[in-house]
Write a structure and sequence with these properties.
Strand content: 15-25%
Radius of gyration: 21 Å
Number of strands: 12
Order of helices and strands: EHEHEHEHEHHEEHHEHEHEHEEH
Distance between the termini: 16 Å
Length: 352
């Protein structure tokens, strides 16, 4: 980081804001383990702090890893200095005593407040990016949460002016599902050229600004077997997908397709694109989780701040045992740090 003009002093790099997630799930323990892995030499990770209850995390550390220290901080600016020797925690009280694997709606307010605080800190320039631990939607609904999930809530906190796009990433593959959490019977009916164009436009911009890819290449999967076989196996490729590809291409985006999905994800095919637009949830998630189940990252594109998340849930069945792997959270933290750096560099270029 370059010195501040006129002072000759260097800025402290911004840390990542990690949310609490569902306190009865594995979020706390994977945060502790992620810190432990991050400070193990050679340590090069972007520092992070977690917005959580310090007493809760300290008790959890005593049970699963007594060597891990927890240190409350007053502001995010203190996180980088604390990170070398302890898990920095920006205090947020959890009102109900937590039993692993047993969520209660009384804690929903704390879970929501953790997300709101993280977003507010990034918007205020006090943190580099938001990384969210897994939430339990039903518990939040029972506590009065009015959004379908994380993505919609984050979009509202961002001002509600954008329609975010989901990207899933692992080493070697990035996928963008155009339709997401819909029954398969409804996904085809919900697929529109406008939705494909929106997903492709947002994905291309993110690849350029957040992943530092100067000329992003998109591949577009077909919906039907053999990409419709010229209409014999379905007309969505002809009537919906191909027109969307043509519109993206006319906008100057390097895009190819629609291609048969069964030939789009082997190693040689993946070398030809930077992200694949997929027509439904499992078309995107199956190849990603097959290639690297442990290190998948959920990324929300189209927000005015960087947001990533582990690509797994709360894992109530193993919560509190210390068996949960921090691999996906570590990947989410690394991705958030890299994206925040790339976005800041892109902003500097745009105003130069």
């Amino acid at each position: 980081m370059s010195p501040d003009k006129g002072t000759g002093t260097k800025k402290t790099p911004l840390s990542l804001a990690l949310t609490m997630g569902e306190p009865a799930g594995i979020g706390g323990e994977i945060a502790l383990r992620a810190w432990q892995a991050s400070v193990t030499p050679p340590a090069s990770a972007t520092p992070f702090f977690i917005i959580d209850d310090p007493a809760r995390l300290a008790d959890l550390a005593r049970h699963i890893a007594p060597e891990i220290r927890v240190e409350p901080i007053a502001t995010p600016a203190e996180a980088a200095a604390a990170f070398a020797h302890a898990v920095p925690v920006l205090p947020l009280s959890v009102p109900q005593v937590v039993a692993p694997g047993r969520p209660v709606p009384e804690n929903a307010g704390a879970v929501i407040a953790s997300i709101e605080r993280a977003v507010g800190l990034v918007q205020a320039g006090e943190a580099a990016a938001v990384v969210t631990n897994p939430i339990h939607k039903q518990t939040l609904y029972d506590g009065g949460f009015g959004f379908p999930g994380h993505t919609e809530f984050l979009a509202d906190l961002a001002g509600g002016g954008s329609a975010p796009v989901m990207m899933l990433a692992c080493p070697g593959l990035r996928v963008v599902p155009v339709t997401v959490h819909l029954p398969l019977a409804r996904a085809a009916a919900a697929l529109t050229a406008d939705a494909i164009v929106h997903a492709g436009t947002v994905a291309a911009a993110a690849l350029r600004d957040d992943f530092a890819i100067a000329r992003p290449r998109l591949a577009v999967a077909g919906l039907n077997p053999h990409a419709g076989e010229g209409g014999a196996l379905g007309r969505e490729e002809i009537d919906v997908i191909a027109p969307a590809v043509a519109e993206l291409r006319a906008a100057g985006i390097d895009v190819a397709g629609p291609a048969p999905a069964d030939t789009l994800f082997h190693a040689q095919a993946r070398a030809g694109y930077d992200a694949a637009l997929c027509m439904y949830h499992d078309q995107a998630l199956i190849p990603l989780k097959t290639i690297d189940f442990e290190r998948g990252v959920n990324i929300t594109l189209g927000l005015p701040f960087v947001r990533t998340s582990p690509d797994h849930g709360t894992a109530f069945d193993i919560a509190g045992t210390g068996r949960a792997s921090p691999a996906s959270l570590l990947a989410a933290l690394a991705t958030a740090g890299a994206m925040a750096h790339a976005r800041a560099a892109a902003h500097r270029r745009s105003v130069a």
